[in-house]
Every structure is written in C-alpha cells, then in structure tokens.
Amino acid sequence: MTSKTSVRPAGTPYPPISDYAFLSDCHSLGMVARDGTLEWMCFHRFDNNPVFACMLDREKGGFFRIAPVAPSTITRRYLPDTNVLETRFTTDTGVITVTDCLPCWEDERESGKLAVTQPRHLFIRLVRCEKGEVEVAVTFSPRFDFGRTTPYLHPVADDLAVVFGGADSLLLQCNLGRISSDAKGGCDAREVLRAGDTREIALQWERPHRMKPERLEPADLRTRVERTESWWRSWAGRCTYAGPHRDLVVRSLLVLKGLTYADTGAIIAAATTSLPEEVGGVRNWDYRFSWLRDSSVLIAALGMFGYRQEARQFGRYLLATTAGRTDELQILYGIGGERFLQETDLNFLDGYRGSRPVRTGNGAFDQFQMDTYGELIGVMYGLIRNLGINYEAQMADPRSRFWMDFIRQVADTAANRWKEPDDGIWETRGGRQHFVFSKLMAWVALDRAITLFEPLPDLKPDLDGWRRARDELRQVIETQGVDPDTGAFVQAFGQKALDATGLQVLLSGFLPPDDPRVTATVERIDKELTRNGHVYRYIERKDGLPGEEGTFAFCTLWLTTCFAVRGDVERAEERLGQVLEYVNDLGLLAEEIDPVKHEALGNVPQAFSHAGLIQAIVNIENARAARREGRAPAVIAGPAPREANERATVPASEPSSPT
After folding, report:
1. Spatial separation of the C-alpha atoms in residues 309 and 313, rounded to whole Å
2. With contact defined as beta carbons under 8 Å apart, do 559 and 551 qualify?
3. Residue 328, pLDDT score
4. 218 HSE (CA, 13 A, CB side)
C-alpha cells in the first residue's frame, strides 16, 4: 500500500487505526504511523506513561518523525520474520529508507550472560539514501505523562540533546544535520542525503538521575539492529506450523511475543489505550494489562507451535500473580502482578478523533467474573495436559504442590459460587446477571479440575463434590440457558438475547458439533449477530454504557472456527477471508471492525484477535485434513478436552534451531 505525504504539519489528521505499525523489544513498545511518525512510545514497561502520544491528541501528545521534506510515496514492511519496521519514501528526486527498531537484549539474558548491553531502553532509526538525492527532516517533539509535561531540552552538542521532565529523561543522538532546539522542549534537523549516504539516529530512555549524555558509536547502533533482526528471525524460525497462511500465523506469533513483558512473562491484551470502539464515543479502554480470559487461547497458540518456554513462563506469572485467597481472584492484573489498577479519565486530552475520555488503568479489575475460574484452571490444564508436563512426578516439589493446592481451592470456589450472578465476560457496567458463559466456564473449571486431580488423591480434592456441581451446572445451563423457542443458547438466564459467547458451548467441549442446540446457536448468531460477515459480541444493550461499538474480530473468528469444527470448510474459509480484509499491510489486526464504514476500531494490535486468527487458520486446515481422511474434525488450538486435541492434527515441520 502506498500514500503521498510531506513533513507533518501542525494539526494533521489522525491516521486510520489500521495504519499503525507495532514495535517491541518485550519491555518497551511503540506505534508508528504509515507516514513514518512515531506517535506512541512507552519505554521500560508497556504500561508506563508515554513519551510520545499524539495518536491520542494531535496538539498535546508529541511525536518523532523522520521523512523527506518533499512529498513522497510510501511503502513499508516488517523485515522478514521480525518486528523491525522498514519504511520506504520515494520522491521525485530519490529514495530513502528508514529502519525503526527497538533493539532486543533478551538474547543475552537467555544465553546466561550476566552483563547486559547498555543502554537497555533504546530506539534506533537508521536512514539510508537508496537512489538520487533527498532532503530529509527530523522533527523531535517529546511530551511526557500523556502530554501534561512539556520537557526541558538541553543541546549537549550539534548531534546530542538531553531532555528532562518529571520521572523521564531522553537522550537524542542525531547525526543527520545539526540539531536546532525550539522553545517547546523539542528540536529539528535536516540534511540532503545522496545515494549511499547513511545516518543513525538513536533515542535513549532512562530515569533522570541515571541519565548519562554519552554517544553510542554508529557501528554499534547498526550492530544492535542486525542482532535484533537475527534474534527475531531465530525466534520465528522455531514455529512448527507449515500449513496454509503460515506467514499470518508467524506474524501473529510475533505479535504475541512482542506483547509479552519479558521480566514476568505477562502478555498484555493490546499495545495501546483508548483507541475507540466507536469513533467519537466513550468506549475507550486501557488494554495494557493481562487478562486471565485470554490465557488459555494464548498459551495454546504459543505452546502448540513450539513456544513452550513462553507458555510456561506465562503460566508461572499467572500462578504467582493470582496466588492467595481464591475469593479475591481478579480477571486482570498488571504486567508486574499489580492488582490495583485504578481507572482514570484524562479529560485534558482530545482523544483519537475526538473519542473521549482517554483512560489509564481499567476499572474492571474489581469486577466479579465467574469465567475467571475456568480461565485459570484452563490455563493450567493446557500447560499440564497439552505441553507435556509430568505433573504427577513434579508433586514431590513443594512449589508444585503449592500451586496445585491453589488450583484445588479455585475449583472449590467455583463449586461454591457458581449460583451467584456476576458481571460477565464483556465487563458490562449495567449490573450483575446470571450469564450463560459464566456458568459454562464454571463448568469448564470443574471439568478440567476433575481430570487434573483424579491422579492426585494425596491433595484431597473434593472430586465427588466437584462432580455433583459439574452435573448440576450442566443441567442448569441446558435448561435455563437455552431459548425454548429456537433451541439456541442465550446471553443470560431468563432472556432471549443472543451473545457470541454461545459459540463457546462447542469450542469449550461442552457439547459436540452435531448437537441440535449447537446448530441452532451457530445459525442464529450467524443470522442475527452478524453484519456483512462480521460478528457483534451482543446487540441488545443493557451494559450501562452509551453509544455503540464495532463487531468483535475474535467473535467472528470464533464463528469461523465453529464452522470448521462442524465440517463446513467453505463457510469457514469465506469468513476467514472477510476478516483477512481487515488485516493491515503489515499483518496486524485490531480489536474490532466497523462492517459498514469498513475500518478498524479499538486497540491494536489485539492479542485476542491474533490468537483467534491462529485458531481459525489451524482449525480450517484440520477440517480439510479430516475431510480427506474421512474423520470428524475436532477443536484444536483452544481449551478443548484432551481427547479432542489428541484426535486433531496440526500441520507441522521440524522446529528450526535458534541461530
């Protein structure tokens, strides 16, 4: 895809959400618009306050841009199998490329080295003139604390400037022209580059009291980019999937890895905050936290294709973070295990295209959502049963016994509390109800716990009590959770309204694909919750929030997977194709889709969307294989019963060894 642009003027319009590229070193993350402008950057931790945030306010947010002065045609790509971005600008007089990289240093930690290359928190932009000559401009305009803090910039030399403000400091190293500071804490520079010329621009982040304004050698900067490319390619090369759409599977896995905070293994739901579910609306949420509900799918996606270490690390994070009283279990946590995630409205910001308020934190942290029990035990079930962990042998380890004892307590809590109403998976703010999906996941918690603990009588699991509660849950779900007129599962007891979570009746293994209630649920959702091939979470709104939202990409991919598991490969492929129309030119997928205006909505890239994309692709290929082999397809790449996963086949090749 191409576009025509020149150096960014004040008040430039917001780009489409699908225009953003994602950068990560598994500690910091950034978002780059199609025109090469860095519009979002959180250093050190994904949930830190940004040092650039003009994606949420064009005037106050701050940005960092490198581009030709003259109008240019733009193309871009990730360097193959990496999270390193290359943007190519073609002008009437020549061509330049800008390579953007957050250098990874996890390779050194993983290799056992104690001394990690400094500085750790670094953003590198390499500029090269490929052809002719091009005048290139650098515009550097940092704003700390979501734009509340205009920093002080001190030029140290013609190519070096240090920036202070509050708890942040930056060091800009720029050998492209001479740095000229302004009165607003920023600076600019420009130079005419000719074919073969290269320049290296680096931005370091550090706490102010630790900042040392020292240059890095240009050769060192290029080496760091090369090592990062090699590290990402090595990581991507371990993917064992070899079926159709492998490029999309690998890109989705790279997204999941990029959303993984290396210090703890936590995977955040998305890279951004407050990109709206409705442009101009108030459904704008901070997704830079780790949700338990995502865990089973994310662990399955990583573990199934060879990334077992990441899956296990995520599992350790979840266990360490959620340990304690099971009646205090939360639905989401901070990436360091934080539990108090106070939601704050930043009313001084305009918001993306006027979508206010911008929010930090997430008030859903103290909601009661019963599906959490099923999500947590589903995570452990996936780790233990599907990743080959010999947990019976490990019970000699006191730490393993501690965690299994905690999981036993979670199952006990699910058995004791399943009759209570809750806030539901979609974090509605309209009061608690008896949501069918919540009851279903309580059933999943007990069903998986029974399988896990049957070989462990020494831990004294209440297997008889769990079986009674599981059986009672099934009876209640099948009677009160089904619309008697249509035979389809509904959103909540006593209602007729549909909810896309009804598809989980099949995907969780609660009912088989040929059950008439599954058929009725799938067909009603396809008819009544779907618009132009895309699925809404629900339509009848009593969720305590004004306004509307787009279709939910993951729900459309649930429906796609249901079609595949039921053997309807053609419908599954059609729906997958409709989702792929909204995967941007870099392979990234947002949270939601507006099927009328044909635009991406919500935070991006969204882990749930990419995990759903993997799940749909793999299940379609498994359904094709099942058709060829004359067998029934089974759910894979999700929290399905073990026996179903054993029947499934994932197209694979031998894993590549890291270089």
Report:
1. 6
2. no
3. 82
4. 11
CB 98 within 8 Å of CB 87: yes
Q: Using CA of residue 307, residue 313, residue 316, residue 318, what is the dihedral sign?
A: negative
What's the rounded Cα separation, in Å, for the pair 160 and 173? 5
> Residue 213: CB partners within 8 Å, gap ≥ 6?
156, 160, 162, 171
The Cα 579–Cα 601 span in angstroms is 13
Residues 493, 498, 503: CA angle, nearest 5 degrees: 100
Give the bridge partners for 99, in sequence order: 86, 126
Q: Report yes or no: 620 and 573 within 8 Å, Cβ to Cβ.
A: yes
Rounded to whole angstroms, the Cα distance separating 99 from 105 reads 18
- pLDDT tens sequence across 579-595: 999 999 999 999 999 99
Reduced to 3 states, what is the DSSP secondary structure of residue 132? Answer: strand
166: left (phi over 0), alpha (psi -120 to 50) or beta: left
The mean pLDDT value of the chain amounts to: 89
Strand locations in 43-92 (E): 63-68, 72-78, 85-90
pLDDT tier at 655, thresholds 50, 70, 90: very low
Q: What are the φ/ψ torsions at residue 650 (nearest 5 degrees)?
A: -105, 120
Give the distance, in angstroms, between the CA of residue 244 and the centroid of all CA atoms in the same chain: 22
Of all residues in the chain, the percent with pLDDT exceeding 90 is: 73
Structure tokens at 594: 């507006």
End-to-end, the C-alpha distance of the chain in Å comes to 32
Bond before 119 cis per omega within 30 degrees: yes
What backbone phi and psi angles, to 5 degrees, belong to 211? -70, 130
Strand, helix or coil for residue 67: strand
Residues near 436 by beta carbon (within 8 Å), at least 6 away in sequence: 477, 481, 489, 490, 491, 492, 493, 499, 501, 502
131-174 pLDDT, tens digit each: 999 999 999 999 999 999 989 999 999 999 999 998 999 999 99
Cβ neighbours of residue 172 closer than 8 Å, sequence gap 6 or more = 140, 160, 161, 162, 163, 179, 187, 201, 202, 203
Give the residue with greater pLDDT, 212 vs 397: 212
Token output for 113:
């080295």
- Helix pair angle (308-322, 371-386), 10° resolution: 140
Residue 553 C-beta-side C-alpha neighbours within 13 Å: 33
DSSP state of 332: E
Low-confidence winner among 57-71, 99-113, 247-261, 287-301 (lowest mean pLDDT): 99-113
Q: Give 543's pLDDT tier (boundaries 50, 70, 90).
A: low
The CA distance from 104 to 120, in Å, is: 8
- Taking CA atoms, 475 is separated from 351, 502, 518, 580, in Å, by 47, 16, 16, 39
Cis peptide before 218 (omega within 30 of 0): no
386 pLDDT band (50/70/90 cuts)?
low
pLDDT above 70 for 116? no
**pLDDT surpassing 80 at residue 300:** no
